[in-house]
Design goal:
The protein has one domain: Phosphoglycerate mutase-like (Rossmann fold, 3-Layer(aba) Sandwich), CATH 3.40.50. The chain has six helices and six strands; from the N terminus they run H-H-E-H-E-H-E-H-E-H-E-E. Strand 2, helix 4 and strand 3 form a beta-alpha-beta unit. It is globular.
């Protein structure tokens, strides 16, 4: 009985000394929730007015960009697209055509992995925008014009019954909307609203295109 009383008083003291347990908030950053492409969205895409932001195809991560000495005219100084990456990009372009999604303007980062992805997916009819280039050693000052150019391309309304394509890097969107699109070759569908505004619609990984009926 004496032992029980000692234990009782010990627990009572402990409960008074320590506050009630409260869960620790590790981060107040909301988790980005992706949405799948649906047949209804495909029908909307066929009417035009959207932006298809495509991350470049698979790359060889064992050969990183030769920072800070990247030469845009020398692909050997950049993380290269692999043969699988070219196949992935080509398959994405073929799937978009099979789904009868009309494409108008096509813009690409000047990095070789982006240009080669654009070429494999859509052919030679694309415009290189140097300010879409994003590298890991950029300062905030370096990023500012890149993010401004990216935001302009994904928020400016699309004219006519076509869709705009932007082939670039994952960091552009991560900095703008807190979304790190994966895997390589993924297409992020956005609705441009003008005045630097846009709406996220859906994401399509390369393998998911086959679930969309033509």
């Amino acid at each position: 009985m004496k032992q029980h009383l000692v234990l009782f008083f010990a627990l009572a003291c402990l409960s008074q000394a320590a506050p009630a347990f409260e869960p620790v908030l590790i981060s107040d950053t909301p988790v980005f929730v992706t949405k799948p492409l649906t047949q209804a969205i495909v029908k909307q895409l066929r009417e035009g007015g959207y932006v298809l932001y495509m991350r470049h195809g698979n790359t060889d991560i064992t050969r990183p960009d030769r920072l800070p000495h990247i030469d845009l005219n020398d692909c050997s100084t950049q993380r290269p697209l692999t043969e699988e990456g070219r196949r992935v990009a080509a398959s994405v372009g073929a799937a978009i055509r099979k789904a009868k999604i009309p494409i108008g303007e096509i813009y690409s980062s000047p990095m070789c992995r982006a240009k080669e992805s654009a070429l494999a997916a859509f052919g030679t009819n694309f415009t290189i925008v140097n300010l879409l280039m994003f590298t890991s050693n950029m300062t905030d000052a370096d990023k500012a014009p890149v993010l401004e150019a990216t935001r302009e391309l994904i928020s400016r309304p699309v004219q006519g019954k076509v869709n705009r394509v932007v082939v670039a890097h994952t960091q552009n969107l991560m900095e703008i909307m807190g979304y790190l699109p994966k895997p390589e070759g993924i297409v992020v569908i956005l609705k441009p609203l003008g005045d630097k505004r846009f709406k996220y619609i859906a994401s399509v990984a390369p393998r998911q295109w086959k679930t969309i009926a033509p």
